[in-house]
Design a protein that fits this description.
alpha/beta, Rossmann fold, eight-stranded mixed sheet, 12 helices, 41% helix, 17% strand, AB_hydrolase_fold, Alpha/beta hydrolase
Length: 296
C-alpha cells in the first residue's frame, strides 16, 4: 500500500488540507489532482489512491475543498476560491501541471479550473458531472432556485459571523462509509436505501456547515464551460440519478470527451471502484502528457 501523507498549509486566509501519495518512480509526469463532490471530502478518493497503479509514476493528490473535511470554514466560498486553492496546492507540491479528476460537483470545479488555469490542466477526468441543462425531476426544479439558495447561504454566513452556528461537526470517513454501502447493495430495497442515504441533505448536514452545503448547491448548478484542446475522459452512471444521461453524454462528446458508461447510480467511486480505477488508469497511461516544467 502506498504511503498516504496528510498535508496542511494556509493560503489566502484559509486552511488547505490534502492527502498526497508521492510517485514511487517519478518520471516527470503531471500529478493527478482529485476533487470531491457536494458535501463530501478527500476521503472519497482514498481507495482509489491506495489501489491505482498510477501511483508508481504520478503524484496523487486529493484535496479537501475549502469548507469541507479538514479545511472547514464558515467564511465565503465559491468555485473561484476553490480553483485558486487547487493552483496553490500544485505550486506547494512543485507541479506546474495536473490531470484533474472530479466527481459530481468536483467535476464542475475541474472544468472551471481548466478554464481559469488552462496552462496548469494537462487533462480532465469527469466522473458524473451534472450540467444544469440536463437536470431532471426535482433536481431541475431545485436548480431553478439557485439564486435564492445563494441568498440563503449569505444569510447563514452572516449569522455564523455573529456566532450563531452549531458546535464542532464530526468528521466523516467516506472510505469506511463506501465499504459499508457496498456490503448493503444486495437487493433493490437496499439500492433504494443507498440512494436515499447518499442523496440525503439531512445526513450531509451532520458533517458540513449549512452555509457550505447551500453554497455547494449553488456551485453545482452553475453551468461550467466545456474546454477545447484538453483531453477529457467522462465516466457517466447509467442510472443517472440526477441528470439525463443521454443529454450529458451528447454535450461531453460534442466537446471531444471520451465517454464511458458505468452501471451504477451516481457514485461510481463507491459502487464500482475497481471498474473506475481501471478505466482511469488505462486512459491516463495512454496520454502522451509530460510535466516537463516540474518545479521540484
Amino acid at each position: 500500500m502506498p504511503d498516504l501523507q496528510a498535508l496542511h498549509f494556509h493560503h489566502d486566509h484559509g486552511r488547505i488540507a490534502c492527502a498526497v501519495v508521492r510517485a514511487a518512480q517519478p518520471q516527470g509526469l503531471p500529478a493527478l489532482l482529485m476533487v470531491h463532490g457536494l458535501a463530501s471530502n478527500r476521503t472519497r478518493w482514498r481507495e482509489f489512491m491506495c489501489a491505482s497503479a498510477l501511483a508508481q509514476t504520478h503524484d496523487l493528490i486529493a484535496v479537501d475543498l475549502r469548507g469541507h473535511g479538514e479545511a472547514l470554514t464558515r467564511s465565503a466560498i465559491d468555485t473561484e476560491r476553490w480553483c485558486a486553492d487547487l493552483s496553490a496546492v500544485l505550486a506547494h507540491l512543485g507541479h506546474r501541471r495536473a490531470i484533474v479528476l472530479g466527481h459530481s460537483m468536483g467535476a464542475q470545479v475541474a472544468l472551471r479550473f481548466a478554464a481559469r488555469h488552462t496552462a496548469m490542466c494537462a487533462a480532465l477526468v469527469l466522473i458524473d458531472p451534472v450540467f444544469r441543462a440536463a437536470l431532471r425531476g426535482r433536481w431541475r426544479l431545485l436548480g431553478g432556485t439557485a439564486p435564492l439558495i445563494g441568498v440563503a447561504a449569505r444569510v447563514v454566513r452572516a449569522l455564523n459571523a455573529m456566532g450563531v452556528h452549531r458546535g464542532a461537526l464530526p468528521p466523516l470517513d467516506l472510505h469506511a462509509l463506501d465499504e459499508m454501502a457496498r456490503h448493503a447493495l444486495l437487493s433493490q430495497q437496499d439500492t433504494a436505501a443507498f440512494i436515499r442515504r447518499y442523496s440525503s441533505a439531512r445526513a450531509d448536514l451532520r458533517h458540513v456547515p449549512l452555509a457550505v452545503y447551500l453554497q455547494d448547491l449553488v456551485e453545482m448548478f452553475r453551468s461550467p464551460p466545456l474546454p477545447t484542446g484538453i483531453p477529457m475522459l467522462a465516466l457517466l452512471s447509467r442510472a443517472a440519478t440526477f441528470a439525463d444521461g443521454a443529454r450529458m453524454a451528447a454535450a461531453l462528446r460534442s466537446a471531444g470527451a471520451q465517454v464511458r458508461d458505468i452501471d451504477c447510480q451516481h457514485w461510481p467511486l463507491t459502487e464500482r471502484p475497481d471498474e473506475v480505477r481501471q478505466l482511469v488508469d488505462d486512459w491516463v497511461d495512454g496520454l502522451a502528457v509530460a510535466d516537463t516544467a516540474t518545479m521540484r
